[in-house]
Each structure stands twice: as C-alpha cells, then as structure tokens.
C-alpha cells in the first residue's frame, strides 16, 4: 500500500516524498477557554513526535508508560482504552508524545460520555440563592456516566482516526517496523508519527482577550488569539412579530416552545448529537408542521413563539443572549410578554410510550406559577426533582415563569453517549431495512420517527391549549412521521463553531433549520429575484414582519429548476454570549467560552533512525577533517610551479 | 537529533572542499575570482542541460516509467558532455586571461600559472556540483524523519554525502588533468577524462544499489588523484622532500 502511494507521483524525485507519509483526514482536539480554565489539547509549535505504539492490551500500556525503551511514544489507542483512567495516566506520564484514538464501534464500551456529570451547573438556575439544595446536582445527577474528559486539559495532541484506510496505513507501518519480536524491543529504524495542533491561546478567556486587545491596539499585523463561540438562534412565530419594534410588544402574550440546536464531543467539529439534539430539533419541526395550519385557520388568543437555541452545550450561549436581549428591550418581545414555556429536551429514547415532564419545584412554590404548570401538565407530578439542564433554566433566572421540560428520562439521562462521537443514528435506534437507497431511506418511516411524531403531536396539542385554543380543533393537530425525516440530520455535525463562516454567515445546520422552517410556515409569492431581495420597495410586502428567501426550487424531470420567492416569519438572532458584549470576560453569570486559533493542524508518519547512526556521522567528519589540515598546509611544497 | 545528520552530512560532503578553499585559495583574490567563475561555468552547463532535459520530459508521455528512465539516462549523459564542453571553454577563456595578466604585470609573467588555474577551476566545478547535489537533501535531513518508509535504504543521507564528496574531489582532479592535457595537446587525456566522467555518472545511476556505485567511484577517485598529482608536477621526490622538510621543521622548532 505504501509503495502504491509512492508510485502515484511519477515524476517526483523530491527527498521529502521519500521520507513522509502525510495523513489527509485529521480530526483534532482543540483548546477551548472560559473565564477561569483552559480545556482541550495542545501540541508544541513544531509538532510532537513519538514512536508509534498500538495500545491493545494492558501490557502495551505498561510498555508505553514504563518499560518501553524508545520514549516518547505516540499512542494509537483502541476504542476500548479511550476512558478516563487510561487518559489520566497518559496525561501524568512524560513518555507520551500524543494520542491517536481509533473511533469505531468494535470494542466500544457500554457507555461513554466525555461530558461532565452535571452539565452547565454554574450557569443554570440553581445556585446558593435559588434552590441551593438542588444546586450542583445535589438533587439529581443528570449524567452519571460522564467522565469529564472533554473538560480536561491535555498538554499533548489527541487526534481521532475515523478513516479506516488511514488507520490501516498506521497499523501496517507499526507492524512492519515497531512490532515486538518474542518480547524483545524492536530495532531501529522505527515508525514514528508527528502531530501538529499548536493552539495560540493560553490560560483562560480573560488572558486571551487581553492579549488580543493588545495586539489590535499596538501591532501592525494584529494576531487574534481566540474567538468567542457564536452563531445564530432561529426563531419563528405563529403570528408575525414586528422585527423593528424592539422591547415590549403591545397586546402580545406568548407561549415559547424551545429546543437546542447544538452538540459537542471531545473532538473539534464532531458532534453527531442524535439523541441529544436531533431528537429535539426534529420533534419541534414536526410540531410546527402539525400546528401551523390550524393556527392560521383557527388562531388561538396567544402567540406561539418557536425557538431553536444555539450553543446550549457551552453554558447556554443562545438562550442567555435571548434573555439578555429581552431584558434590555432589544428583542421583538420582552419578559412581560412571555406567558409560559415548553421545552423539548432529549426525547428520542423513550421506553415504551412514557414521556417525562420536568418542572422547577422552587418556582412552583409560587401559587400562580403552580396553577399554570399543573394546567400544562394536566395532572400532578413530582415536586422534588430539579429541572434538567435546559434553556428554560436561563429564562427562570430572569423571571419566574411557568414552564415544562419534556424528556425521555426521569432522574438521569437515558442517553449513554451524551455529547460524544457515539451519539449517532445507532444510538437513536434508527435502522433501515437492508437494500434501501438513500432516497428511499429519506421517506422510510422508522420506529424512531414514529415515536418522535407521537411526541410532536402531544407537544403541538399542548401548545395549542396553552395558547388558549379551543379543544375542538385538537384532532386536526397531528404530526406526520414522514415529515420527521431524521436521516438528513444524522450525518451533520452540530458543533457551534465561530462567527462568519466560509459559506455564508451562519452554520450550515442553522441555515438548514431556517430554510426548513421557511418551507413549513412560509407562503410562496410571485415576486421576482430583485423584488425578493428588496421587498420594501413594494407596498404589499412588509420587511418588518417577514423574511424573504429566494429559493432555487426542486429539480424538475429535465434537471432545470424554477426558483421562487418564499415569505416567512422566520428570523435569525445572534447567539453570542452577553459577556462579550459587556466585555466582562471573567463573568460568572454568562458563558465565556472561546475557541483558540491555530495555524496548521496536520499529521504525518515517517521512520526515525537510531541515535547511534546519527551520532556516527559527525564522527566520520572528524576523521576527514583532521587529515585536511595536514595536507593542505603543504601544498606549496608539493606543487612548486 | 537530526541536526546531527544535517551537520554530519554537510561536513562530509563539503568539509574537504571547504578546507581546500580556506587553506589554498582564500588568501589570493585572483584564485577566488577564478574559483567563482569556474563555479559559474558549471552552473551554465547545468542550466543548458536541464533546459534540454526539461523540454524532453514535457514533450514525452509522463505515464511511461521506462521512457522516463530512459530520458533520465539521456539527461545525465548529455549533462556530462556539456560539463566537459564548458570545462574546455573555461580553459580557453583562462588562457586568454593569462596572456592579458602577463601583459599588465611588472615582470611580464602572469601572477598565476596554468597549473594553479587548473586546480582552482576544477575545485570551482566541484564545489558547485556538490552544492547542487547536496543542498536539497540536506534541507530534508533537518526534519525528524529519515528515508525508508517506502522501502528505501536508511543510509540515503550518508551515501549522498559520500558520493558528493567523491564527485567534488574528482572534479578537482579532472580539472588539473584536463588543463594539462589541453596545454600539451594530448587529446587522449581529454578523452580519458570525458569517459571517466561518463563512467562515474553511469555508476551513480545504479543507485539505490549503493554497493554498486560508491566503492567503484572511490576506486576511480584514488587513481585519478594520483594521476592529477603526477600530472601537475609532483613526484615521489617532492613527497619525500615534504617529509624531510617536516622533520627538519620539527627538529629546529
């Protein structure tokens, strides 16, 4: 295989190509910082080099950490060994130059969650002053399987090996050169790997932002060291809201239906988040699809406001920003407009037909809140459970509004792979019968889709009633499992990322949800492209109430498309933590997460020679040099003329 | 640790020529000029031969490995011939220069003899040829890796350095012999130099079979050195004079 790689470049005679095999697909772990800590991984500026060793058994671990004769080692870690105890031993050892983790399902443990046991414990609603007996997961530990690996700080690079072919190349190199023969150490030359993932930011967000400020002020070529995590929330409403009228909206009482739009894992830009996020998104989209037509025919008294919050994994970036804007009268509605809230949490792994409704026991001590919540639930429920980590907690921090969080779990998450790379379609039990094409998979009704559609129907009907609608219309509200075509979402990555992106100002998932919403709730107009881009010129169109999207349309039989203009009340609102607007980088109240910048992230493998060979060469030099001087000084004698 | 490889190979390849430069050439500005001009002439020959090779490569089918190999062999031999042509051209230039130098000097004799010019010119060719062979290999030796992951020999760097050393010395010796042959109009000498150069270039094409290329090249280098020594006026008598002079100096001081 390696020789084949070489013959690909017929005319190259470059020595570099004889030495290095560059690995193309690299999935690194990057450094993130908040007000007080740095987490993630760091390499040295010229890369970290180590002799390859595959970690498959306990004796391999021993070899790497104590007995192997060629430290530092670059560990190729089988899936089964990627857990807290092994990684902590690697972290404390000076003989590990880096780790490459094989991501596969073989050998995967029964559970793996690199997140903390108590997600977002410092930025939720429970604190010393509010429900102190429920704070810090004293009441319920939500993610007991969490090992906290994502929140550790590693001083060596950790990469993920997702491509099976690439892993084969590494294994082959290891087997050819580094394998132990009968327990004795392997001989030089040995196969080694070098990982580059040098991060520019250190210590915490405060330090990093201070240094960036200094750069911007005094440097000719300013270097930004880190960027705040930011993206956009997506929101829409059953009755259009005037986007240019900020602050309190007169005569508006709003029921908020919310879910989260993001996820994360140990590695950068990898977040399948199937049960954690996709279940919620898909359910809310199905809810909107079921509810919207009825709210247009028989509008309920209250407005229903649907919101998808981005960045919730990182101390509630999106929801804290929306609450902040509401309090500052910088949003279309404010907290006085909010009647109640219903949030969809993780709803994909229901056992049987059960669904749990979580409410906040502290705010329910207030009678009016309690009545509302009981009405929402329709029956009594437990008082002593705190709310799970949810965007609703940020709303409660601002105002004690009645609300519920729906979930498939009662005390702790049923998701055994919360915020990890393994929270994928298989975790959500989304399976297709063999032999289906991708197009057929898109419309196939999986059991998971049917289950989520049931939840969506329940949510839609509850929202309608909560908004004051009449019971007689409830039977018309049903979610269609076909709309719940999850497979499209199951291949995406839900990591929030940074500001302006390559293909437009928002994350691809954000854009996607925005356009699906426009499809579900919008109306097709017969505006031309230029009119669609400047609708304020027309008197019939209102840019304050609606957004206008120029859509390319479905592909017809002969491949042409007929674009058209869609008018919908779907909007994006900036999801960046208020801490960055207030310039309080050490804030305890708001998210302060930033992502470090870097120059290059890459990996390559090569052979390393023995020290003896390398040292022998200068010795040869000594020999030649001593002879020189003697002979050279005597040239005049030898060659007179 | 690969700094060790870099410095080791650099000193192996360039150590002797650098020492020769420092002890025999650096003090005399005329010799320095002739050295640099010699290096430039070699560079010109390389430029022309590489142009020819480049055009041949671009005009040919890049997917045919045997054709590419054939073009490489052709390129090597053409370059050798062109280098010898430029050596002859440099000889003619230096002869002319010599006459001019004699005319402007005080005592009607040139400040530098043809034999010295031959040695300096040969060294100039050698240094430039060594530089072009070795510099890109040296820059890649700085990295953490060594050659071998695709099955090449791990002695790549050191054999490249040794080959460069041999070629540098050979160019110096050939310079001496060639100019002497031209002076005395012994055309068989020139033919011998050209064929030796072709032979050495052909041996280098045997790489990576290092046993087939390095020892034979050194076996050729030694007699060529001896030939150059005798051709430039050295003799066994002067060698023994060297030893006695050294002994006498040792006794007197």
UniProtKB/TrEMBL annotation, chain A:
Keyword Cell division: no
Source species of the chain: Cyprinus carpio
GO cellular component, one term: plasma membrane
Main localization of the protein described in the UniProt heading: membrane
Name of the protein: Nicastrin
Coiled-coil annotated spans: none
InterPro entries reported for this sequence: Ncstrn_small, Nicastrin
Classification via Gene3D superfamilies: Zn peptidases
SUPFAM superfamilies: Zn-dependent exopeptidases
Domain Nicastrin small lobe span(s) in chain numbering: 28-201
Pfam families (UniProt xref): Ncstrn_small, Nicastrin
Single biological process term from Gene Ontology: Notch receptor processing
Record's signal peptide: 1-17
Domain of life: Eukaryota
Family: Belongs to the nicastrin family.
Keywords, sorted A to Z: Glycoprotein, Membrane, Notch signaling pathway, Signal, Transmembrane, Transmembrane helix
Membrane-topology annotation of the record: Single-pass type I membrane protein
Subcellular location as annotated: Membrane
From TrEMBL, chain B:
UniProt key word Ligase: no
Superkingdom in the source lineage: Eukaryota
Alphabetized UniProt keyword annotations: Membrane, Notch signaling pathway, Transmembrane, Transmembrane helix
A Pfam family it matches: Aph-1
Transmembrane segments: 6-25, 32-55, 67-86, 117-135, 155-179, 186-206, 218-239
Membrane topology: Multi-pass membrane protein
InterPro entries: Aph-1
A biological-process GO annotation: protein processing
GO CC terms, sorted: gamma-secretase complex
Subcellular localization: Membrane
Function (record text): Potential subunit of the gamma-secretase complex, an endoprotease complex that catalyzes the intramembrane cleavage of integral proteins such as Notch receptors.
Family statement drawn from the similarity comment of this UniProt entry: Belongs to the APH-1 family.
Quaternary assembly: Component of the gamma-secretase complex.
Protein name: Gamma-secretase subunit APH-1
Name of the gene this protein is made from: zgc:114200
């Amino acid at each position: 295989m390696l020789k084949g790689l070489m013959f690909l470049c017929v005319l190259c005679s470059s020595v570099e190509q004889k030495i290095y095999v560059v690995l193309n697909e690299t999935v690194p772990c990057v450094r993130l910082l908040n007000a007080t800590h740095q987490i993630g991984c760091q390499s040295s500026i010229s890369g970290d080099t180590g002799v390859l060793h595959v970690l498959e058994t306990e004796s391999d671990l021993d070899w790497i950490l104590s007995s192997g004769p060629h430290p530092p080692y670059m560990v190729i870690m089988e899936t089964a060994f990627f857990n807290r105890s092994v990684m902590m031993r690697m972290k404390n050892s000076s003989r590990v130059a880096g780790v490459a983790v094989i991501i596969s399902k073989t050998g995967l443990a029964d559970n793996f969650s690199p997140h903390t046991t108590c997600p977002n414990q410092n930025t939720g609603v429970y604190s010393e002053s509010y429900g102190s007996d429920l704070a810090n997961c004293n009441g319920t530990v939500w993610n007991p399987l969490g090992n906290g690996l994502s929140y550790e700080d590693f001083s060596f690079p950790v990469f993920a090996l997702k491509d099976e072919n690439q892993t084969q190349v590494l294994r082959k190199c290891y087997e050819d050169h580094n394998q132990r023969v009968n327990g004795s150490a392997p001989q030089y030359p040995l196969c080694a790997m070098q990982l580059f993932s040098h991060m520019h930011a250190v210590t915490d967000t405060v330090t990093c932002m201070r240094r960036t400020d200094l750069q911007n002020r005094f440097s000719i070529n300013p270097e930004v060291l880190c960027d705040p995590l930011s993206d956009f929330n997506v929101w829409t409403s059953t009755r259009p809201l005037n986007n240019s009228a900020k602050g309190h909206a007169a005569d508006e009482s709003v029921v908020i239906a919310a879910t989260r739009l993001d996820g994360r894992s140990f590695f950068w830009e990898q977040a399948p988040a199937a049960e954690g996020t996709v279940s919620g998104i898909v359910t809310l989209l199905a809810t909107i699809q079921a509810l919207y037509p009825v709210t247009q025919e028989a509008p309920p008294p209250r407005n229903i406001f649907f919101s998808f919050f981005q960045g919730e994994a990182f101390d509630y970036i999106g929801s804290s920003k929306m609450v902040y804007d509401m309090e500052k009268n910088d949003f279309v509605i404010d907290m006085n407009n909010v009647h109640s809230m219903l949030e969809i949490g993780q709803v994909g792994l229901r056992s049987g037909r059960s669904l749990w409704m979580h409410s906040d026991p502290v705010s329910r001590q207030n009678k009016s809140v309690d009545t509302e919540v009981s009405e929402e639930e329709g029956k009594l429920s437990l008082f002593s459970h705190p709310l799970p980590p949810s965007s609703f907690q940020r709303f409660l921090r601002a105002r004690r509004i009645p609300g519920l969080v729906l979930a498939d779990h009662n005390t702790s998450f049923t998701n055994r792979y919360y915020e990890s790379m393994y929270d994928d379609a298989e975790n959500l039990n989304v399976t297709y019968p063999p032999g289906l094409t991708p197009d057929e998979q898109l419309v196939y009704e999986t059991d998971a889709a049917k289950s989520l559609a049931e939840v969506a129907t329940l949510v839609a009907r509850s929202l309608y009633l909560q908004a004051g609608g009449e019971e007689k219309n409830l039977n018309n509200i049903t979610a269609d499992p076909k709309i719940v075509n999850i497979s499209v979402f199951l291949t995406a990555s839900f990591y929030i990322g940074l500001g302006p992106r390559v293909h437009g100002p928002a994350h691809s998932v954000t854009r996607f949800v925005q356009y699906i919403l426009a499809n579900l709730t919008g109306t097709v107009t017969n505006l031309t492209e230029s009119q669609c881009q400047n609708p304020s010129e027309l008197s019939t169109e209102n840019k304050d109430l609606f957004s206008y999207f120029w859509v390319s349309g479905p592909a017809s039989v002969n491949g042409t498309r007929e674009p058209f203009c869609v008018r919908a009340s779907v909007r994006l609102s900036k999801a960046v933590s208020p801490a960055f607007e207030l310039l309080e980088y050490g804030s305890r109240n708001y998210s302060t997460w930033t992502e470090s910048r870097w120059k290059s992230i890459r990996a390559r493998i090569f052979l390393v020679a023995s020290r003896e060979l390398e040292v022998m060469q200068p010795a040869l030099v000594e020999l030649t040099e001593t002879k020189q001087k003697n002979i050279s000084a005597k040239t005049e004698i030898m060659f007179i003329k | 640790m690969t700094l060790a490889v870099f410095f080791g190979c650099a000193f192996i390849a360039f150590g002797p020529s650098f020492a020769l430069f420092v002890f025999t050439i650096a003090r005399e500005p005329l010799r320095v000029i002739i050295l640099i001009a010699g290096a430039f002439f070699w560079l010109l020959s390389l430029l022309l031969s590489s142009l020819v090779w480049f055009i041949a490569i671009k005009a040919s089918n890049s997917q045919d490995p045997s054709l590419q190999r054939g073009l490489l062999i052709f390129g090597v031999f053409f370059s050798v011939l062109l280098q010898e042509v430029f050596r002859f051209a440099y000889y003619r230039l230096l002869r002319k220069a010599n006459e001019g130098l004699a005319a402007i000097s005080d005592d009607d004799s040139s400040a530098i003899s043809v034999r010295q010019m031959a040695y300096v010119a040969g060294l100039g060719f050698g240094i430039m040829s060594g530089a072009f062979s070795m510099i890109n290999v040296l820059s890649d030796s700085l990295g953490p890796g060594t050659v071998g992951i695709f099955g090449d020999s791990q002695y790549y760097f050191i054999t490249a350095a040794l080959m460069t050393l041999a070629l540098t010395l050979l160019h110096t010796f050939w310079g001496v012999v060639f100019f002497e042959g031209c002076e005395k109009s012994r055309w068989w000498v020139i033919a011998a130099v050209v064929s030796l150069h072709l032979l050495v270039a052909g041996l280098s094409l045997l790489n990576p079979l290092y046993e087939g290329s390095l020892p034979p090249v050194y076996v050729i280098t030694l007699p060529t050195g001896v030939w150059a020594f005798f051709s430039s006026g050295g003799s066994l008598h002067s060698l023994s004079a060297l030893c006695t002079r050294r002994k006498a100096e040792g006794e007197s001081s």
